[in-house]
Amino acid sequence: MPQTKKNKTSTSKTRSRNTPRSMFTAAIRPFKRFYASMRARKADFLRRRPHRSFRRTMRRDYARSLSLPGYFAFTIEVTQLLWRHRLMFVLLAVIYIVLMLAFQLLGSQDTYAQLRELLDATEPEGLLEGVTGEVGRAGLLLMSIVSTGLGGELSESQQIAGVFLGLYMWMTVVWLLRNILAGKKVVVRDGIYSAGAPIVPTFLMFFILLIQLLPAAFAVIIVSAGLQSGFIAQGAPAMAAGLGLALIVVASLYWVVSTFIALVVITLPGMYPFRALTIAGDLVIGRRLRLLLRVVWLALTIVSWWVVVMIPIIILDGALKHWFEQITWIPIVPVAVLLMATFTIMWSSAYIYLLYRKVVDDDASPA
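User: That's the sequence. What structure does it adopt?
Assistant: Structure tokens below.
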């Protein structure tokens, strides 16, 4: 009899598991867990992010401390850090330039000569004369070089190699600075061999950055085409279009601030792209405008350095090749552009990394 009761009990349990209601409950259990997980993630996100769509956020809800040096002081701090370890970073720059030359990514002297001849041919007579005229001509050439480049028709493999080398340069500088500031003794070889682990996540982060800049790029193209075709008339319509363009560009820049920080976060071991975006977003919340101004300052600093360095080189190149026609084949300006591009990547990496460190150190400091 006890055995019969046990069999009846197990049979009833088996039948209860096979009822339609129990089968339905088992089927929807994964969806319930997924829904609970999503609700928990949403609650955690709302707890960390005080802003709500179409609602005014009170300052007491989002104000966060951020102790940063002044603009000039922070620029000098970045420059001094690179200068203290100048031999290491100069060697890294030399390696980068050699690789760029190996992939034939040096700008073409023929392309530069064509740009110069085109400017001379289209220049209104008497407009660019004297010292001011030479500076203006050099400035127009510099704008053409930056906007169109000197690479000519690059193959797909060359374009991929250029992007890859630029991102690898960024990651190597960040890796070296992270270890230098941690008090470790490192050499360039360590950075080159160790910094490449997050290359795929970094590439994805760079792709996200480009997507975030698309609204600003489309706005610039549309407004420029409208002004050139006459669709946007002069006067009030042009002012309205310019205001709209400025708002879109600022919004796009406001959007990418956290992505710049994420480009540093992604270099941490075991970090994933969207996790890096989440961490960067948490770091910049309540500080985004102040960090945006720092990024704008970075852009202005780089532009000013390009103007101060490249315009005299362009003027000197034109004068030397006017006096000595035998050296017209020497790519003085393309080499200078490559050197400035190398310095720009290196200095931008150091600037963004130190900015990231300031934010992290501010969060770690006692309130």
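The chain has a mean pLDDT of 80.
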